[in-house]
Amino acid sequence: MQISKPKNSTLALFAIAIVSIITLASWSVPMTSGMFSRFFNETDTVPKKCDSKIGELNEAIAQLQKATESLKERDISREVAKAIESINLEDIHNNVEDAMLQAQSALAKVDVQKIKEEVSLALARIDREKIEEQVKLATANLQPQIQKSLEEAKRELEQAKQELESAKQRIRKEKI
Fold first, then answer.
1. What pLDDT sits at residue 43?
2. How many domains, the chain?
3. Domain that residue 157 falls in
4. Which terminal residue of the chain has fewer beta carbons within 10 Å of its beta carbon, N or C?
5. CA 63 to each of CA 57, 71, 73, 102: distance values in angstroms, whole numbers, following the listed order
């Protein structure tokens, strides 16, 4: 059995027309309060008698929470008191004194004079090394100037020799 298309389309159009008519008809009817209660029974999930019992339970829970908080505070204060009692000030004082004595003996063992001598020797070595390094740098920087001065002095000596030779020759010529 096959359903033909024209029958399906007419059925669909007929269903759409009925839904449209019902919608348009209900549109014009005003909504009034209590209309839901005419067709359905309204019942509350919690009876009114239970409201007072729920309030009593809430009060009992609040009192229980306050009581547990106060017990926790009492327990904490007891633990703090026990901790304070367990602290032995004499032991702490003795430990501090022992530590101070050990520190003083360690300081006494350190030879301050020897350290001062080593530091002064190291400073002397550093100063000597610095001086030698500065001399090397100065000679390295002055080396080109010294070379130039030597070359100029050689030239001047050559000129002076030449002048002396020329003066000697003039003197010889005059003697002759």
1. 61
2. 1
3. 111-176
4. N
5. 10, 12, 15, 59
91 is a domain residue: no
Amino acid letter, 154: K
Is residue 117 one of the residues assigned to a domain? yes
- Model pLDDT for residues 117-133, shown as the tens digit of each residue: 888 888 877 777 777 88
pLDDT bracket for residue 23 (50, 70, 90): confident
pLDDT above 70 (res 81): yes
98 compared with 112, residue with greater pLDDT = 98
Question: 11 lies in a domain?
Answer: no
Distance of CA 35 to the CA centre of its chain: 67
Mean pLDDT of the 62-84 span: 82
pLDDT for residue 30: 65
Q: Is residue 45 part of a domain?
A: no
